[in-house]
Amino acid sequence: MTKTWKTKLIHPDAHAPEGFESLAPATYRGSTVLFPNATAVQDTWDQYAVGYTYGLYGTPTTLELAARICELENGYRTFITPGGQAAISLINFAFLKSGDHILIPESIYYPNRKFSVEVLQRFGTEVTFYQPTIGGQISSLFQKNTRLVWCESPGSISMEVQDIPAISDAAHKIGTLIILDNTWAAGVYFDAFAHGVDITMQALTKYVGGHSDFLLGSVTVRDEALYQKLGAAHQLLGFAASPDDCSLALRGLKTLAVRLAAIEKSALTLAQWLAARPEIELVLHPSLPSCPGHEFFKRDFTGATGVFSLVFKKQFTKDQVQAFVNNLKLFKIGYSWAGVTSLAVAYDFGPRPGRPAYDHRIVRLNIGLEDTSDLQFDLAQSIAKL
Ligand SMILES: Cc1ncc(COP(=O)(O)O)c(C=O)c1O
Q1: Ligand 1, atom nearest to 216 Cα
Q2: CB of 218 within 8 A of CB of 66?
Q3: How many whole angstroms from 8 Cα to the centroid of ligand 1?
Q4: Per-residue model confidence as pLDDT tens digits over 285-298
Q5: How many CA atoms lie within 13 A of 202 on its CB side?
Q6: Atom 6 of ligand 1 has which residue's CA nearest to it?
Q7: Quick one: which of 63, 84, 236, 332 is 20 to 30 A from 16 by CA?
């Protein structure tokens, strides 16, 4: 048929040559997905079962990232979400209802805790917080309606490594699901499914991205039944992830191993150096015996990443600890760790019951890719000013 130039804007006859092959995965954007005929039209989220139906459930770029994360975590299937916090809320919305009870460690990422208090409790789900070092004793907290046990290992800021096999053995005896925030281990240094976890989530924002320039999350499941439940919730919550961000995550994956190797070495060197400083009471790095749960780290993990905390001795005031952070030159102050830039954030556990008694003396460091001796010099010059 003949077309005016206006129609050709939408339906061109001009096409680029075919046969392009590249090392970079293509970035497919798209909301509308075309069906071959009228009877093929359907709004089914499970694109593995029926083919592509709608951009909300992922373009090939999104599903490529999902497949790659799933392969690395040895899971059954993975969903990509717009951020790590969305991965957390997706899991909770998919599995919980009014009248259920869940267990959350005191060391959980704070917005995860806040979600349970401010959203789940509002919808009638009961929440109990437990000490992350509880191990198999967790069974003493189980109720008839306990549906999920959240774990995060090591925990946020206080860094307790959890005895996941003991917790999962106890939970599976009463048919309760174990969920793990596997972000610190980047999904590669802790084989969650081999240790009894049912569902993992990661903030891909962190090590997978690795450059502090996007937000994405993942949820990985161990079997088809969990996949079906999560897929239905993912569709209704509308957690679409940007294919452009997914392509950045796919790029990040290519350098994950070398970034992690450099970061692990540098972080451990700095943690050991800090542990020997007279101003420091405690270094909370899972590779050091001073970290609660170090024995589980040695037993269950195959490597360490670059986030750890230090606790100043009791004589240091809040102002001094904050001055230590402010006087750092290379370490920047900011959330969202795991990028190439080193970061420092001071916390105050004083107003947080259930957290260890470190009060205002705890500082979390993210070690980036700067030269280790420059970072050590920076820490030393700031400590010297205390
Ligand atoms: C352990 C952990 N889980 C989840 C998240 C949430 O990820 P996002 O920032 O992508 O929402 C974070 C972010 O800091 C985190 O530290």
Answers
A1: 10
A2: yes
A3: 45
A4: 999 999 999 999 99
A5: 32
A6: 84
A7: 63
